[in-house]
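Can you make up a protein sequence with its backbone structure tokens?

===
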Amino acid sequence: MIIKKIFNNNAILAKESGKHEFVVMGCGIAFKKNIGDEVEETLIEKTFILKQKDASEKFKLLLEDIPTEHVSLCYDIIEYAKNILGVELNDYIYVTLTDHISYAIKIFDEKLNRPNGLIWEIKKFYPREFQIGLKSLELIESETGKKLPEDEAGNIALHLINAQVNDSGNKMQDITNQTKMIKDILNIVTYTYNVILDEKSLNYERFVTHLRFFFQRLNKEEKIEIEDDFLLNQVKVKYKNAYECMLKIETYLEKELSEEEQLYLTIHIQRVTQR
């Protein structure tokens, strides 16, 4: 394993014969070293192997501008998130989250506040990601001595959500918009039925989960397929109020939904409004 580029004393770009380049970090790993020298493997603490070329290139650029301590801290946060969520995260998380957290620490030092207008919705709709965000704030405080505001836990959660469901071409704004739309749809149901939804119920959780994947399908233009419209016709009659509420949601979305989506939305509305 040889050194291809030196970012600083603690971070280098390395390459093994016949393999991809990857970023390696370790205390003093580049001290008194030159390009082409062998890497002292006993000093390696963290290894970043980003398979997506664009993400890899952007990560290298990031290393030139961001303190190594911040990069190392975000590595630990991402590894923790992977273990808790049990999913693969898009390589871009190493770029986007590292850049975000480093900037959040910077503006904290400058006594600036950046409120998260979706903090309540993130807590309600993405509780696991938000809890990881809170744990991240603990790690940040432990490493830097800086106690960032709870709003940043919400921002970290959004990055994690984005890395789970989006490819590299999509933007964080997609998740922000989806979260707002879920809130709006729940409000439509609440005001139509004039009830307070039980946010701790299984039916509420199922409805929100359905909406999350519903928006993913809309973005990808995927559809749920059912064999015929018999069931939808039955539901229209049996759950008339829920069906009419679904039509209000369709109007809000400004999009004609397939019969399949109409069916499942109606059923979920019926369930979530029943005590």
